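Follow-up to my earlier ticket, as requested here are the two runs.
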Amino acid sequence: MVVNSGPSQRHSAEAAHAASEVIELLEVLWERGREAASPAPVSASQLRVLYTLDRDEGINLRTLSETLGSAPSSVSRLCDRLQAVGFVERAPSPASRRELELRLTGRGRTYLRDLRDLREEALATAMAAMSPAARKALAEGLRGFRAAVDEALPSRREAGAGGGVRSA
């Protein structure tokens, strides 16, 4: 099979490289926010649990494990640690005596709110340094990127990754 290495493919590769560089910068900003949001920052895996519980409050361990694509025993240990720091609580399910529901505590919600605020503040500072035209182009490009990802990964739409959902 012959691969077309014309301008379109070259521009796609250049855009992918630029996006990769931006992602690395965002990872640094995100890590700073996580460290600043709490004296005992949570791990990236624990943060995924918090974001999932924020979106799908009251789910059980099995559903959380499926959502994260992890073994139930690993997710249970993550929840144990989050419960120990006061971010997650387990409560009996009204639907089944054998199941427990997982919920964020007030402290867990406060942590996520503070983390999101710190991260958005860092992004807003960076965006303020951009020209209005560059900000507009970035917003348009990000909308196009999100639409392409949603089209390529339909499971994101089914999992509730629509416009109103916030994630890590």
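Run two:
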Amino acid sequence: MKKVFSLFVAILAFSAVSFAQKGVIKFAKNENDFGKIEQGKPVTYVFEFTNTGTDPIVLGNVAASCGCTTPEWTREPVMPNKKGTVKATFNAGVMGPFNKTVTVPSNAENGTVYLTLKGEVVANKTAAPAKSGK
């Protein structure tokens, strides 16, 4: 009887922890297409997110898929219903199409989020104005 009661208590405790709310990270946009950008001119986009959960969110070490992209991010905890940002700067050094990923780990319920920067680096004469964020 003791074993059955102990098992029941353990299952109940596990269920309570499983249903506990956490922070939930919700990005307004997960991808930015710069279109055609000039070679040698870095471009930046700011991804904005909201904590739609009930606990604070803390971002881990945000990392880019290559050395040509530099991320900056909100370092302090993002409280429920508050906003944070991940800023990504791409150095357009090599001509041609690009598709870069920024990995955003966090303690949020939905865990790691992947953001994408894409476009095409062209010679200075043929570039259209870059679309940038904030």
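The only thing I checked on run two: The longest helix spans residues 2-18. Let me know what else you need.
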